[in-house]
Amino acid sequence: MSRAVDGSKRKNHRKKILKLAKGYWGRRHSNYKTAKDAVAKGLTYAYRDRKDRKGDFRALWIVRINAACRSEGMSYSRFIEGLNKAGITLNRKALAFLALEDATAFKAIVAQARQALGA
Predict the structure, then answer these.
(1) Which CATH number fits domain 8-117: 1.10.1900.20, 1.20.140.10, 1.10.3720.10, 1.10.10.200?
(2) Are 21 and 39 in contact (CB under 8 A)?
(3) pTM above 0.85, yes or no
(4) Closest listed residue to residue 69, CA positions, set 22, 36, 25, 107
(5) Tell me: the pLDDT tens digits for 8-33?
(6) How close are the terminal C-alpha atoms of the chain, in Å?
């Protein structure tokens, strides 16, 4: 009985890898051996960066809130402390959106935080 050397499973696996490598530069998109390594590394980065994206957005929201607080004459840390004392449970995403889109509402929240601090 003859031995099967290039069956459909193998071909499908190679096709899948090369499809994932579409758009890569040089041999990395056409040569299976190099594409395999490039795709493995790319998928590793994609997994890692999906986790990192959450932290990146949180940092962006904090920067936006801090800038809006500073224009009201209050630091970010004092603002968050005031919110906690006032019992306001808005997350940073919502606060950053308010700071960017609705300045009057954000000013009202800053006023409540300031009042809760007793300053």
Answers:
(1) 1.10.1900.20
(2) yes
(3) no
(4) 107
(5) 888 899 999 999 999 999 999 999 99
(6) 90
